[in-house]
Amino acid sequence: xxxxxxxxxxTSALSEPSWGQVLAxxxxxxxxxxxxxxxxxxxxxxxxxxxxxxxxxxxxGVFAPTAAPAGRVRAPADTGHGMPPAAQAEAVAWIAxxxxxxxxxxxYPVMCxxxxxxxxxxxxxxxxxxxxxxxxRAQVVVTSASADRQLADRYAPALIASFGSGRSRVEVxxxxxxxxxxxxxxxxxxLAARKSAGAQLLRNRHLLFTSRDxxxxxxxxxxxxxxxxxxxxxxxxxxxxTAFSDAAPGAQVPFRQMTISGDRTAxxxxxxxxxxxxxxxxxxxxxxxxxxxxxxTALSMEFAAPSPLGLLTAVLTVQREGx
Length: 323
What we know:
Layout: E1 2-4, H1 19-32, H2 36-60, H3 85-98, E2 105-107, H4 109-117, E3 125-127, E4 140-144, H5 149-155, E5 158-163, E6 170-174, H6 180-202, E7 207-210, H7 211-218, H8 224-233, E8 239-245, E9 257-261, H9 265-276, E10 286-291, E11 297-302, H10 311-321
Parallel strand pairs: 2-3, 2-4, 7-8
Antiparallel strand pairs: 1-7, 4-6, 5-6, 8-9, 9-11, 10-11
C-alpha cells in the first residue's frame, strides 16, 4: 500500500522555517563550505595525522617485528578481553564494511590486528589501554560487554552494533567527546529534528512512501543524511521510496540505507549523479542503480556508520540566528 504525500496550506504563524528549507539549506551549506582547495588541505592534514598515528603505534610496540610484510600488526596470544572468536570475526567484518573510512577506530591489540588483516589501515587504529581514565582518540571503539564499562559508559555511550550475547558480547560504540550526558542531550535533539523533517517530507508531493516507511519517518527512525538526500533529489523529479533499511545488528539506530524508484530510468540516473557529487557527510558510502526482485529499476544508497548527530539542528540554529 502506497501513501501519497499530501500538501498542507502554509500558515503565517510558524515561528521557525519549514523543514523543506532546513533540509535544502543543509545541503547548500555543505556544498558551499567544501571548496576544492579545502578538500586538498583536509586530505593533507589527514595524511599527516595517519603518519603520526602509525609512528606512535610503532613506538608503543604494537607493530612487532615479524616475517610478514612491514607494518603488519601481530595478534597477541590471548583472545583479547573475553571476545569470542566468532563474535570478534563478525565485528571485524562489519566494521570494515560499514564504518566510515574517515573514522578512527579504538581497539585492543588483538582486535586491531584482526581489523588490519581485514584491510583497515593501521593509521585508522587507536590502541586502547585497559583501565585508562582518558577518553579514546577515536570516533568508534570496539570492546566486549564485560571490559572497561567506564570507557563505554562515560566516553562511548552510543551502541551502534553488537555481536554475540551475554558478557562476552562484542560491542561497537560511537564516542562522544563531551561524555554521556552531552551525547544523550544531542541524541534527544536530533531525534526531534528527524521527526519534524520526516513529517515535512510526507507533505512533499514529489515523494511517495509505503505506510511502513511513513511510520518510520514520523518516528524519527531515518538517518538525517537520507532525509536531506530525499529533499534534494525530489526537488525536480517524483520518486517512490521502496524501503528504508540498515545493517546494524544488535542495536537500534537510524536507518542508513534507502532504495527509491521512479517512472523513468533517466530520472534515477540524474539522482545518482547528484548524490555522488555531494561532499561528506552527504556523500553515500555506496550508491548504484540496481534491479529489484520485481524487475523494477531503482537507486540504492547507503551511508556509513555512525550516524552523525546535529546535522539538522545545526542548520536550524543558523537560520534562527540569521533572522
